[in-house]
Amino acid sequence: MKKKILLLHGWNWKNYTSLTESKDVWNNRKEFVDKLSEKYDVYKLTFPGFCGEPEPERAWELSDFANYVKEYLDKNNIKPDYILGYSFGGAVAIEYNLLFDNSQKLLLVSPAITRNKEKSKHIIQTPKFMQPLRNRLRDFYLVHIIKNNYMINGTKFLNETYQNIVRVELLDELEKIDPKNIKIIYGSIDKQVNPSYVINNINPKFKDSIKVIEGGTHDIANTNADDIISIISK
How is the chain split into domains, by residue range? Predict the structure, then answer.
């Protein structure tokens, strides 16, 4: 009998409800999923706001996504052997482990679990009463100046949720997870999540839990599918 893997996708703006033609949020990594399906029973959950999934009325925090995973598994009576979180999905997988099942084995591919604090430590902190103005200026900057596609193409729910989850910091939270229950896979030249920063700042007990694929980018599911599946199989 094949082991079960639940896939949690990343935050790809091309899969926003208003833009996507595919109802499959993993369509952009189809070959990887097809190869994975040869060895495992694969389940694909789609988060709200992506590929036609209805949106909640309020912006979500990371814990809301973890609850969504719990509800999906309970509703469908699925007990996965592994949860594979890609990019943002990796953050959700960690949160699920911490909130609901600390024994759940996690496979994190290019996980977005931290920001490079060296780049962000000089951000000016504003008083609480100025936060609404700062938020409006931030949104104007992201949409009109640097033309951030995540903001330009997002709905109110997606944009506000994106601002919540982009600040996620989970390196310290990882310490609550048994290293035997987690495997972290990065591409060596990932430009979206700096693997060197993660490796240099993660608790040393996780050093053996990290695998780095040389020459791999953030999109290693497309460029190094066989390497990832080989690591998972071991």
Answer: 3-117+168-233
145-163 residue pLDDT tens: 556 777 888 899 999 999 8
CB 108 within 8 A of CB 193: no
Task: Report the distance separating Cα 51 and Cα 122, nearest Å.
Answer: 37
Report the run of H or E that residue 109 belongs to, with start and end: strand 105-109
φ, ψ of residue 202 in degrees (nearest 5): -75, 155
| 215 CB-side CA count, 13 A | 5
* pLDDT tens by residue, 42-97: 999 999 999 999 999 999 999 999 999 999 999 999 999 999 999 999 999 999 99
Cβ neighbors of 118 (< 8 A, separation 6 or more) are 197
Rounded Cα distance between 155 and 151, Å, is 8
The whole-model pTM stands at: 0.88
Question: What interhelical angle do 62-76 and 88-99 show, nearest 10?
Answer: 70
CATH number for the domain formed by residue range(s) 3-117+168-233: 3.40.50.1820
Look up residue 22 and give its two tokens: 């595919």
Cα–Cα distance list, 211 to 24, 42, 137 (Å): 28, 22, 39
Q: To 5 degrees, how large is the angle CA 170–CA 5–CA 157? A: 50
Residue 164 and residue 170: Cα distance in Å, rounded? 14
- Tell me how far apart the alpha carbons of residues 185 and 211 are, in angstroms, rounded to a whole number: 5
**Which of 41, 51, 30 minimizes the C-alpha distance to 222?**
30
